[in-house]
Amino acid sequence: MTTDEAPYQRHLITHAEHPIAAPLSEESVAALLRRALADRAGPVRLLDLGCGQAAWPLRALAAHPTATAVGVDLDPGGLAHAAAEAARLGVADRLTLVTGDAAAFAAEAAHGAFDVVLSVGATHAFGGLAATLAGAVARLAPGGRLVLGECFWEREPTPAALTALGAEPADFTDLAGLVARCVEAGLTPVHGRVSTLDEWDDYEWCWTGSLAGWALDHPEHPKAAEAAATAAEHRAGWLGGYRGVLGFATLVLRG
Fold it and tell me: Which CATH number is associated with domain 20-151+171-195+247-254?
């Protein structure tokens, strides 16, 4: 393959070294999945709304041989990657991948109820937190668990942070406000993890480093300059803007 033929799928490139599309370590992901699947005897149905590369369902299926999962996302590249990884892990027969809108899927009652619903770093797929919670609850079985990953303000957002994120102060609340909104939606928090600064840094270094490295490795590619500029802009916005200001919490909530 020549450099001009190398595919440019930015989401796959930026997550090549950090497949979890959120600032969470592998240990945190494993612990959260254990909590979500606790006390579940027999077959378990999982649904990931906005699954990307289906990193969460793949880990759950590998650890729980009686589980089945559905992943929904609009990105065909991410789903193709997920299908290949499912085949490699030997779980392809238990994973259904749907190319489509997560909110529309959640609104369709014919899909039935799921024991575990996941939406980690994907509230944008619903247009915000409130709609995400409503959509997830609609597909959650009685007594089921929702794994929700969402940003919050660690401290008062600075002008630099808001500029880097293209955000407004009202886009997120603090951690207490995030939990309160979940409770207002009829959900009870039973576990949670706040991403550490080390987890954030690892995620951001992987994101920017993978993209910058791809640009260096493919200097003749038509997208090389764009990739390098995107990596540099993202890195500057993180280091000079929202680092230590924007937080991320992953909550396990019972319906």
Answer: 3.40.50.150
